[in-house]
Amino acid sequence: MVAKVKGPTDHVVVVGAGLAGLSAALRLAGAGRKVTVVERESVPGGRNGLLNKSGYSFDTGPSVLTMPDLIADALACVGEDIKDWLDLVPLKPLYRAFYHDGSQLDVHADTNQMQAEIAKTISQEEAAGYGRYVEFVTKLYKYEMNDFIDRNIDSPLNLLTPNLARLVALGGFRKLAPKVNQFLKDPRTQKVYSFQAMYAGVSPQQALAIYAVIAYMDSVNGVFFPKGGMHAVPRALAAAAEKHGVTFKYNTTVTSVEKKNGRATAVITESGERITADVFVLNPDLPVAWRDLCQSSASSTPLHASHCLLDPIRVMTILHITIFISVNHGMASLMN
Ligand SMILES: Cc1cc2nc3c(=O)[nH]c(=O)nc-3n(C[C@H](O)[C@H](O)[C@H](O)COP(=O)(O)OP(=O)(O)OC[C@H]3O[C@@H](n4cnc5c(N)ncnc54)[C@H](O)[C@@H]3O)c2cc1C
Question: What is the pTM of this model?
């Protein structure tokens, strides 16, 4: 059961035009709300940002896109088709992994192509193990997506679904690295199909096996490059939102949220402007929103992301971006 806002919800102010704020704005506009987005920067995107320098544009955040269906879903809320807004190029291969022994492995989203690559570079047995690993991560995705990822969790009771039992039975709550090693015996494939946990700041040794869903999202479902760079994504979302009546106020920093009788009534900006609405969506990081905007005395738990120390031994490279992964990435994370 999703928590509902009581009372009028006609006008919504979204603070922040990051991907989350833009997605919220599209969904609310699609649901018939009047939406105003207040963003401190001059462009949308937040951490999926843009740097213009000496006539060139640079993405300051992510370099490639996975799960474009989620972007399509946000655009569909206002009846827009992603094909009219973004030109997505599937990357082939996804990665080219280089190993210290001189061998290399091209990583393909197409399972048959990848099995052939593993059979050629490593062995038939390893290719068969990869096939079983793909079945495993595909099941993880099926069980996790609707119940745990694409869902509001308002109470621990929301977690109690039949898919939780399925995840337990699948071994999803064991550690990731040994689980991956059940399917893959060669250290090269073990690394290629477990490093994705580090995108979430956790080493494969420490992460739970449910994190292998990230390997599904990128190495099985595919990786895309939006023409114009990753900043084309927030630009498209913001333009579609504007087309459907969302108002954007850029270069406007919110300094506080005004409350009356326990309900937010307005946001106050740096210039002293007071923007009223019925409901407010705060896109800044949760501790910042609590501490700075809501001046809440409620103690908030800061989110921690561990960092992986870079090792001089390069074991893996991506064709489109370069990732350096320590051979001892598990140890490195433990040190943080
Ligand atoms: C180099 C890099 C690589 C990344 N790679 C990946 C990746 O491979 N995969 C992946 O999933 N994620 C990746 N990320 C993370 C991803 O970019 C972020 O998780 C995502 O963009 C966050 O979106 P958000 O809307 O939640 O928050 P943000 O992007 O932080 O949006 C918050 C918005 O609120 C605005 N704001 C804040 N305070 C105020 C205020 N007081 N008043 C008005 N506006 C305010 C900010 O300017 C910003 O626009 C990467 C990030 C970086 C930096």
Answer: 0.87
